[in-house]
Amino acid sequence: MNEGSPEKNNTVDELIIHLDGLKQQVEELSRKNESLKTENEIFKKEKAELEQLATKDKLTCLYNRRGIEEEIEKCVEAITNGREYREKRGLPQMQSVGILLLDIDKFKQVNDTNGHPAGDAVLKKVAAICAAQVRDFDRAGRWGGEEFVIILPQGDEGQTRMVAERIRQTIENTVIEFNGREIKVTISAGVAEYGVDTSETWEEVFKKVDRALYRAKNQGRNQVVGVKELQEQEQ
Fold first, then answer.
1. Locate the GGDEF domain: which residues (predicted)?
2. Domain chopping of the chain, boundaries
3. Is 146 a catalytic residue?
4. Which among 23, 28, 216, 220 could bridge 188 via Cys, Cβ 3.0 to 4.6 Å?
């Protein structure tokens, strides 16, 4: 029986060894690829968590000022630019956005009387009420201190005022319990809308909302004032 030449047998053996080596390399590359996929998923998750931390208020879990400003920018972009622009950037079609700026009345007195931990409890409760009173696609954020901003896509001043009144009434009727104490607060708010027919810039409209808020404060607090109402009073 012819078993073949030694040279041929050596060639076959070398080929088998080479193929085994290639198989091991492929398996190693496959393991590395899976490892890279896992690391990439971890990276994406950590990046998303960091981005969320950068735009969320630690105390209230609402958007912080940076976060709510980014959401406002998206709304303004969607309103002021055409359909093609919106589609390229994945922005929704939008004709207007309601703006609500509220401030907790006499908040310094809450801190001075009950201590800052009690003040934090009040902030968290007000934030929770704001979040509960808006739609899933509305955005609520802590503007700073005891001020909060809520934006309502496709909302007008009338609708925004109704939301503000619901929040105001809910807060007025809420007792906040802290270390055996019962704390009650009220809020004042200014509201407006920014839309496709608005001749002013977003910044100009927001300044008017701020003035409406302080008109509510000066008129006795625990009330909502709209920019249209403010303008009528000033005429």
1. 95-229
2. 1-55, 65-234
3. yes
4. 216
pLDDT at 179 over 90: yes
Residue 118 Ramachandran class (φ > 0 left, ψ -120 to 50 alpha, else beta): alpha
Residue that is written with structure tokens 């393991």 in the block: 31
Top pLDDT among 7 and 189 is at 189
- Percent of the chain at pLDDT exceeding 90: 64
pTM of the model: 0.77
